[in-house]
């Protein structure tokens, strides 16, 4: 092949080789500058999430998620909804973060899990005025009606332990209805995370002193989770930032401010 022809044929290849580093750099910059926008779904559930005096979201899970998303460069809007609606929206839509959801075996494949933020101990409570409601084991609860929140972890755990909806379990959409039934005597037991019972009951205008533990039935892991339809790259980024927060002590500092146990 004549030298001139060889040089002409090689020229496009040289141009591609020269352009390759620039193209890689452009790709890296595009990835670094990628902006994710998500919705953080909350329920009224002290001390994890509630509305402050100004109507804005506050609480342990709110502060944890704000720190996490701020560090990760993720734009977010916060919305309150009922727990059944939170679960439904998280199953149906991408880019949904649920900052406080118990990690159960049945939920394992339904979310992109970010990290565990606390600990939970499931407890059945009775009214202090009802010492006749006696439990030695979970099977004894079948003699009574237990109030639970629809789709809450307590409902899922008690179903797995053999209690049946309608026969042993009475479901409510929120704590207002649940506690009204309990204090009116329409259900004899109520299921709570023992770490949060007092805060929840007091926030709805009742006295936690009127309740007493009847039986512990579970322990589990409150966690942050991203909806399954979300980008796995976003989930990886949030997991990285969460580990940084655990390593530098900022996660522990937030937990301490809210008197929450950090695993």
From TrEMBL:
Recorded hits in Pfam families, A to Z, give:
SBP_bac_3
User: Signal peptide location in the record?
Assistant: 1-32
- UniProt KW keywords: Signal
Q: Where is the Solute-binding protein family 3/N-terminal domain?
A: 43-258
Show the Gene3D superfamilies listed in the entry: Periplasmic binding protein-like II (3.40.190.10)
Q: Which domain of life is it from?
A: Bacteria
Name assigned to this protein = Amino acid ABC transporter substrate-binding protein (PAAT family)
Q: Which organism is it from?
A: Roseateles asaccharophilus
